[in-house]
Design brief:
single chain, alpha/beta, globular, binds farnesyl diphosphate
Length: 258
């Protein structure tokens, strides 16, 4: 199977071939800010929610392709702690999306051996959303392949503040000495601790042309590579993912070294 690097317009070029056989060249943990649903809909004179609906279909496509490529963790920013500021109808629609997604996609996730996990303040989600997520986690808990990690009602600053409070409690209770606080201790209190060896992000992708991090995995992105594309999330397809990974394979990660 021959895969080609593709340009922004999705036309294949034969300049760079993705190295699918070099496992070390596939980012283990890809995190995506799925931006541009609203603009996609607006361009088509559709309501914003139509963009989110199409965005959900993109989630299905990208999940399958990432899993087949050999990605270990795919974290998707589905709803931030700031997204509650949107109009009620849009928030309601976004809260229904995980229900529809898992209703229609869990059999495929099982077939693909994909395991669902979640990070975020899920206690604050509406009951139907929370239940759908919990059921999907339960249904896929024995899968051993890629982790599909949804960030739902997630905010990185709040995550770090909560971690800090937990550590302070441990110190107060005499269970932890201040001088023993280190990166490992801190990471154990982050929501991403469930990702084990993959909790650091390797590759952070943001669609739609915006170039900011928006309170997403601030600690975990410390040494990740960033990729920004003008493609709107509903248009981000398998070829676009392959193009992004092709770019990752040209990067030289030094982790502060030389
Ligand atoms: C940002 O685009 C997107 C969101 C806030 C929601 C992302 C949600 C999905 C892609 C669907 C998620 C699917 C599941 C299964 C949970 P925007 O609305 O800010 O777009 P705009 O910047 O063009 O207005």
């Amino acid at each position: 199977m021959k895969h080609f690097f593709r340009n922004e317009k999705n036309k294949p070029t034969d300049t760079t071939e993705i190295l699918f056989n070099a496992a070390e060249k596939i980012p283990h943990h890809i995190a995506i800010i799925m931006d541009g649903n609203g603009r996609w809909a607006q361009k088509k004179f559709l309501p914003r929610i139509a963009g989110h609906k199409e965005g959900m279909n993109t989630v299905k496509k990208i999940t399958k392709r990432a899993s087949q490529i050999g990605v270990k963790v795919l974290t998707l920013y589905a709803f931030s702690t700031e997204n509650w500021k949107r109009p009620d109808t849009e928030v309601s629609f976004l809260m229904q999306l995980p229900v529809d997604f898992f209703d229609t996609f869990v059999p495929d996730l099982i077939k693909e051996n994909v395991k669902v996990q979640v990070i975020g303040f899920t206690d604050q989600l509406p009951l139907h959303t929370k239940k759908a997520v919990e059921q999907a986690i339960e249904d896929t808990k024995n899968n051993t392949g890629m982790i599909l990690n949804f960030a739902l009602n997630y905010g990185s600053r709040s995550e770090m503040l909560e971690a800090t409070k937990q550590i302070a409690e441990q110190v107060k209770a005499g269970e932890l000495a201040v001088e023993d606080i280190n990166e490992v201790v801190f990471e154990q209190q982050l929501m991403t601790t469930t990702l084990g060896e993959y909790q650091d992000v390797d590759y952070m992708i943001r669609t739609s042309g915006e170039e900011r991090i928006s309170n997403f995995l601030l600690w975990q992105n410390a040494y990740s590579e960033f990729y920004f594309t003008k493609v709107l999330w509903p248009d981000f397809d398998e070829a676009a993912l392959e193009q992004a990974i092709g770019v990752y394979q040209t990067r030289h990660r030094r982790f502060g070294g030389i």
